[in-house]
Structures are given as C-alpha cells and as structure tokens.
Amino acid sequence: MFRDRREAGQVLANLLSAYRDNPNVIVLGLARGGLPVAWEVAAALRAPLDAFIVRKLGAPGHEEFAVGALASGGRVVVNDDVLRGLRVTSAQLRDIVEREGRELVRREAAYRGGRPPVQVTGRTVILVDDGLATGASMFAAVQALRDAEPAHIVIAVPAAPESTCREFEDLVDEVVCASMPTPFLAVGESFWDFRQVSDEEVRELLAKPTTGLALIKPAAPTAAEMIADVAVDAPQGIPPREILEQVIGDARVVLIGESSHGTHEFYEARAEITKWLIEEKGFCAVAAEADWPDAYRLNRYVRGLGKDTTAEAALSGFERFPAWMWRNTVCRDFADWLRAYNQRAPRQAGFYGLDLYSLHRSMHEVISYLDTVDSAAAARARVRYACFDHPAGDDGQAYGYKAAFGAGPKCERQAIEQLVELQRNALDYLRADGLLAEDELFYAQQNAQTVRDAEVYYRSMFSGRVSSWNLRDKHMAQTLEALLNHLDRHGDGHPARIVVWAHNSHVGDATATEVWADGQLTLGQLARQRYHGEARLIGLSTYTGTVTAASEWGGIAERKVVRPALPGSVEDLFHQTGKDAFLVSSRINQKAAEPMSAVRLGRAIGVIYQPATERQSHYFHVRPDDQFDAMIHIDTTRALEPLETTSVWIAGETPETYPSGL
Predict the structure, then answer these.
(1) What's the whole-model pTM score?
(2) DSSP letters along 134-188, please?
(3) Confidence label for 345 from pLDDT (cuts 50, 70 and 90)
C-alpha cells in the first residue's frame, strides 16, 4: 500500500531506472490522478513531462458506466458490445463525444497555459496513471498515441489487476505494474491518501521542471548512499553487542525473521544473537515457527530431560515437510550449545514451537498424557479424536477439504470438548508436585489447543488464503502469550523474555505491507499491539547466493541459486550500498528513516522457490522502517545444510549464466 500518489511515483521511478537520463524519453501523466505519480517518475528519470487527457464516455442515464473513452488528439475508443447492450444510438454517442470533447479541450488549455503539447513522434513514451481497473482509459490513450507514431510505448502504474497488466503486455512495448493486489477491489484501496487531484494541482505540476534539476540545486544523496552512511557493519550478519543493546533494550519479546527458510547465514546469525540474548539479557525461551510437539521433544533434550541423548535424535521428530527447516546443522549445533548452557545456568532456557500443523501428532500427545494421569479421560479423548480418523487418516489437509465441502464429518465440537475437559481437570492433574508436572500439563493443554485451532485452520484453507493465514498467526500469537504466562510463574519474580524465530512474512508488521489491504495480519503486528514497546521486530535479507528450498510442496530439498534481487527492491537498495553485511535501524540513527520509509518491493522465499515467476511468487510491497525495528542485510549467502543431504542437494543448481558466466 502506498502512502499517496507521490510515493507511488517514487516506487515506479525505481522500477523504471533504466530510462534515466535518456534524452529520447518523455513521460505522459493521465490527467488528473496520474499527474502526481508521473511528476515523480519524470523528475527521477530527468525526462520531460506532459499531461495526456482521457475522458470517459458515460452511458446516457448511467454516466458512471463507461461505454468508451476520448483521448487527447480526438481519438475515440468505444466498446461496441456495451453500446449494443445499452442500446446507445449513434446520435447519443455523438452528443456524448462532443460534450466530453469540449471538456477535454478546456482542460488541455487550462493545464498547459498556452504551451503546445510535447512532441512524441519517434520517442519513447512512458504513460503513467495512478492505477488501472478495467484499463479503458489507458487503452484509449495507447490507441491515440499510436497515431503520433512514438518509437516505444511503456505503461507504468502503481496498482492494477494482474489480468489487466497481462492484457496490455500484448499492446505496448513494456508494462510496469508495481503491485497487483488479489483480489483487486479498486485503485484507491492501494493508497492511504487517495484524495482527488484538482485542476490547480495539475497546472502546478506541469509548471514545475523535471529536467535540468541538477543545475537548480546540488544532487541529493541517493537512498543507497543514505543507508551506507548510517549502516552498522555486522560481519556474517552479527551486529556489535552495543548496537544490539540499543535496538533491543528491555524488550520482553524479540522476533528475529528471515527472508528464506533455507539460508545458512540467517540461521547462524539468529542463533548467535539468541545466545547473547540468553546469556546476557536473561531470555529463557526460543519460540520457533515449528510444530508444538516436535519442538517440545527438542525442549526436553536441551533441558536434560527425555530419552534423546543427541541433538540429531531430538530433532528427528521433525518429519513433516520441510524437515530441513529444523533438521539442519545450525539447529543441531545450537541445540547442543543450549543443552550445555542449561547444565550450568541458574535458570534454564527452553525451545518451543508456535505452529499448528500438527493436528494428529498433537492428538496423540494429548492421549499419551492422559494415559499417565487419567485413563478414563484418555478413553474419552480417543472417542472424540476418532472423529478425525474417518475422513482423512492422519492427513490434516484432507480432513479440512472433506469437512469444508461436506464430504466428511466436521470435528470442531469434539476438539472443543476435549480442550475444555482438559482445562477443567487441570488442577486435579497437578497432584504431583514440582515444575515438571506443571510443564507436562502445560504441554498437553497446548496440544489440545493446537488440535482445536488446527481443525479450524484446515477447514479454512478452502475458504480463502487470508482467513487461514490469519488463523495461523493468531494461533502463534496466542501460543506465545500462553508460553510467557507459563514461564512467568517460574521466574522467581523475573518476567519471562522470549526470542521468536520465524519468517520475515510473520515477523514483520503487516500494516506496513501491501497484504494489509487484503486484511492479512501477522505475528509481529499482533506482538506490537499486545506488548507495545516491549516487542522488537528484526528482519533479515539477502541480495543473491544459494538457498535450500523445494520446487513444489512436499518436494525434495534442493540447493537453488537465488537470483539477484529485482531493481527497486529493498534488497537491491541494500546491495547498492556496496557493503557485505550490516544492520540499519532508525532506532539507532534517525537518518535511516527517510530511505527506509519509502515503499519498495521486498523478497520472501519460503520453503518453495520459483525463480521463473519470482516477481509474482516472491515479492510484495513493504515499508521497511515500519515493518521492522531493524534490518540485517547479508549481501551474498549460501544454502542451509540439511542433516540429510541428498545427491540433488549436493549437486546444486547450475547458475543461469553457465557456461559463459564466471
């Protein structure tokens, strides 16, 4: 989402940087809404600017419904099907065209103040508007421009439906759509400020020079230069301790992200920062984007409990795709470090999971716990949870599909009943004294809560991506709060402090990204709302390198080449600083706020990486300064090493430049 049209123009200018200082380029803004956007583009490219006026031809009696458009130069484009459907006569159409034509001439004269229009013949024309919906006005503009015989036509808009952008790709030389929200509701939904542009504003913008600006005032530093000036070196992604102290302060919850689920440096830097948080800041738990029962097995290991004698054995519970997220060399080494730390520390630090994919595994753990404390309750739990076995076996997604479409039973009631009974009997189950008994009860209760939330989640998967995403992040936020409350009771008066490991797309604040317009929320956003100044969000990014990821859901782990980040992205901006690894934060230096407050593309590689559709699959618009409290950038990174490496992973992926590239 863009702050206003001006910011949208700045984002577009970044995406059009290849046209900068090209004397053959001219920028035309569709009046009126496109002019503020176009001025920013023209000024950044140092290209001439002019207005291009398109008037909608509204149907008689239904003026808001377009039957066509009239563009500068007198070009009329109509939709014959609509004309026939609305039974618009030739005489009516002629009257509409004449009326709108008079208004078009008036506006052209008023906007230019007597200046002739810029000549476009033989030039590269960048047509800019504040967005596209049906594209009727832009289509009329393109058709009218063709009569003037420009050399090339480029369309650039901040927001449009993907289908509309694709349609124009066959009509012009290049289409730049900065964002393609899904679902696309209206152009104005992509802006915080979408006030109507007045005739006076258009006149002022056209009178304001966009060329020769370097002669008027010294060139301002670029965003990359501003970042480089305030960035703090962070070798291998690990900032100096005094800088971490400034960023984190007395926060109770520190969320550390990653822009992929398979980058070695992200995991290594996060582990090293976490060690400092535990040793020096008193943090007592890691809460990861991992399933609750699988992570709890590792928790038992690091605390010297359970049957596992090695970290690899403790990590073997992570069987569900993508196993490499936690079954990797960095997590193994961190688990061994944490176990050794706990053997000497006065207060142990644990490892917990926040996610909800473990529907059947959590049911099994609830029953196993009840078998040890209440055999009758265990029998009732088996009966209730048997509801899930009929439609899907142990496949949560299959259960959700059948329940959502009426092909199998819905087990919501049974999941709720089991959770309520376990909570009601909690005090009775604490007959055994000591922390361990309470820990095991808490573990069982959270498993029952996970079953209840996972049941809803798997059904919601088939009703919309946003609803299922929100259920998942709300579950993670609720689990985090429950864990804080549980650990608070055993802190000898010291409040619990937790570090969260999750993807940037969960850690970052959704209100500073384009997904907020779709109603999507994130764990980081919820943490800020719940803990206010006691939450810190830290994002990690990279420009290029390799990554461990699959090509499809459930696929084998591959070592893939990460393409250089797209122009106009946060990662590209950081790359332009020329620094290998650094931290940047307006909490450390307020000068970082300006370059970090602009809307840019941000890359998100999950467990699947699809380079062929990278823009659509892995980028969305973000405002980094509001999304995170700090960002750590590592320019070149390598793939995370799974504990079980296959021949496919070892072979890796041939870079696209092979055999000519070096």
Answers:
(1) 0.76
(2) S-HHHHHHHHHHHTT--SEEEEEEEE--HHHHHHHHTTSSEEEEEE--SS---GG
(3) very high
